[in-house]
Amino acid sequence: MNHPERIVVGISGASGAPYARRMVQLLLAAGVETHLVVSPLGQRLLHDELGMEGLDLAMLAGGEAGGPTPTGLVLHNHRDVGATIASGSFRHDGMIVVPCSSNTLAAIASGSAQNLMHRAAHVTLKERRRLVLVHREAPLSLVDIRNMQAVTEAGAIVCPASPGFYLGPQTVGDLVDFVVARGLDLLGVPHELHVRWDGKAPPRPTAERP
């Protein structure tokens, strides 16, 4: 896969706002034009988990709250199903929904375009482009499992937000980076996150005795 130049990012209402913020930040750092669509529950998620007042694009990209919109970040209204990303003629290199709620998964699996995020995902599938769904829900119902099967058969990749511990994470940020790095890899976006297994486990921290 060539270096992606344009990626669509959807943020829905499942817990995982730090994943969304880090994804946007690293896409922009890689020079990728990033087209963003956020559902109403996704916006509430950003408020509840990041303390974001309104849809603050500067803060979402890792900058100071209330700052200017970062270059290369384009926001689309979730109700505007006539936006550019709703058309197959709009060329992009892939789409990722991070986090992806079970409701959004179900809409994509069933072909129900209730908003721009769903429509953009359907277009990504029909144009045979890369669609990554970072699902964040536990436990899974049989409905979720069947919806995952349906989107996988349609060509999407389900990448659960399941961080690994074999690299010895020390902070929550390390766990976030693990999941985001998998999403970037699946989109073909280069990054410098140190999350690759080299066959050697890190030293175990010495347990403190009471």
Automatic annotation (TrEMBL):
Enzyme class, broadest EC rank: transferase
Binding-site list for FMN = 13-15, 39, 101-104, 136
Q: What is its EC number?
A: 2.5.1.129
Q: For this protein, what reaction is catalysed?
A: dimethylallyl phosphate + FMNH2 = prenylated FMNH2 + phosphate
The record ties this protein, via InterPro entries, to: Flavin_trans-like, Flavoprotein, UbiX-like
Which positions does UniProt annotate for dimethylallyl phosphate binding?
Answer: 166, 182
The segment(s) forming the Flavoprotein domain are 6-185
Signal peptide coordinates: none
Alphabetized SUPFAM superfamilies for the sequence: Homo-oligomeric flavin-containing Cys decarboxylases, HFCD (SSF52507)
- Domain of life of the organism in this record? Bacteria
Keyword annotations? Flavoprotein, FMN, Prenyltransferase, Transferase
Which family is this sequence assigned to?
Belongs to the UbiX/PAD1 family.
Role noted for this protein:
Flavin prenyltransferase that catalyzes the synthesis of the prenylated FMN cofactor (prenyl-FMN) for 4-hydroxy-3-polyprenylbenzoic acid decarboxylase UbiD. The prenyltransferase is metal-independent and links a dimethylallyl moiety from dimethylallyl monophosphate (DMAP) to the flavin N5 and C6 atoms of FMN.
Spell out the protein name for this chain. Flavin prenyltransferase UbiX
What is the originating organism of this protein? Natronomicrosphaera hydrolytica
